[in-house]
Design a protein that fits this description.
Length: about 170
């Protein structure tokens, strides 16, 4: 790789670390092309990306912002899974690591500076995604309005039943 491509890769990695909600770092040695393609497809369906970068370029892109702990993540052949949502890449990577013994999560980086170990990434994977949180919030906001509408309609319904009871009583 020539210097221009290296510089371009470093800039791309800097933007990945800065713009992604979280970056999952994992070992992938021994995985076949089909297994990697399956993982890429799963991540792509959820809006995440899987890329292989040279470790030295990743360390240069971090440029000490994550400290020695960040540099320690890039000691073996690694792959990066990242997405805008902090939970998505971690959730899919953790699920895939359960299914495939060759894929091992080493750690992760959140917001370009916070280093997570493997257990931190797995804990992040258990959190609900941003879309799930939005759905729960909307449900919580709509529930009181639905209850108020039900309470307001109840007296009118009861009144109608009373009138119906008197009407049927007079007809009988």
């Amino acid at each position: 790789m020539d210097r221009a491509k290296k510089a371009e890769s470093i800039e791309e990695l800097k933007s990945v670390f800065a713009d992604s909600g979280s970056v999952v770092v994992a070992l992938y040695s021994g995985m076949t092309f089909v297994e990697m393609a399956d993982l890429r497809l799963r991540l792509r369906k959820e809006g995440a990306v899987l890329r292989v970068f040279k470790n030295r370029l990743a360390q240069k892109a971090l440029a000490g912002s994550a400290g020695e702990a960040g540099d320690a993540l890039f000691k073996f052949p690694t792959v990066l899974a990242y997405a805008n949502d902090p939970v998505t890449a971690a959730k899919i990577a953790a699920q895939y690591a359960k299914e495939n013994d060759k894929f091992k999560i080493v750690g992760g980086i959140m917001e370009g500076t916070t280093v997570l170990d493997a257990n931190g990434v797995k804990a992040l994977a258990t959190l609900p995604s941003l879309d799930e949180l939005r759905g729960k919030l909307i449900g919580l906001l709509q529930a009181p309005a639905t209850k108020v509408a039900g309470v307001l309609q109840a007296p009118a319904g009861q009144l109608a039943r009373v009138f119906n009871a008197y009407a049927t009583k007079e007809n009988a």
